[in-house]
Structure formats: structure tokens, C-alpha cells
Amino acid sequence: MQTIDNDLLERLELLESKQAFQEATIDDLNQALVLQQREILKLQEQLKLLSDKLKASAPSMIASQAEETPPPHY
Fold first, then answer.
1. Could you tell me the pTM of the whole model?
2. Which residues form a coiled coil (predicted)?
3. pLDDT class for 74, splitting at 50, 70, 90?
4. How far apart are CA 46 and CA 39, in angstroms?
């Protein structure tokens, strides 16, 4: 009977150890995910600002109405 109790106790301790390790791993992964999400949001904002800046500084390929010459039949 004592062998069964010791065997069960060892198995229980092993399960508790694995469960604690899994909890620590999940917490570590969660922290990494939070940091990555913050970095992605920061990069998206920088990309938007860069895109807006590029659009503002790039000359348009379409002339404004004031710059358009009238068609020849006018």
C-alpha cells in the first residue's frame, strides 16, 4: 500500500511541477506577446506618418485646374 501511495505522490509532484512550468511559460509568452503588440502598433503609427509625409511631399502627376491648358477647340 505504501508503494502505491509513494507512486501516486511522485506522479502528483511531477504533475504539479509540469503545471508550474507551463504557467511560467504562458506568463513569459504573454509578456512577449504584449511587447510585440506594442511594437507593432508603434511601427504602424510610424508607417502612417511616413506615408502621409511622402504623399504630402510627392508632386502629383495630375495638373491642377489652373495649370491645365484649354483644349485646342476653345
1. 0.60
2. 12-53
3. low
4. 10
The Cα-based distances of 65 to 43, 56, 58, 70, 73 in angstroms read: 37, 19, 18, 10, 17
Q: What is the length of the chain?
A: 74
DSSP element (H, E) containing 7: helix 2-57
C-alpha cell at position 21: 512550468
Higher pLDDT, 1 or 41: 41
The predicted pLDDT at position 63 comes to 65
Distance of alpha carbon 43 from alpha carbon 35, whole angstroms: 12
Integer-rounded Cα Rg, in Å, for the chain is: 33
pLDDT exceeds 90 at position 67: no
53-68: string of b/e by CB count within 10 Å (b at 16+)? eeeeeeeeeeeeeeee
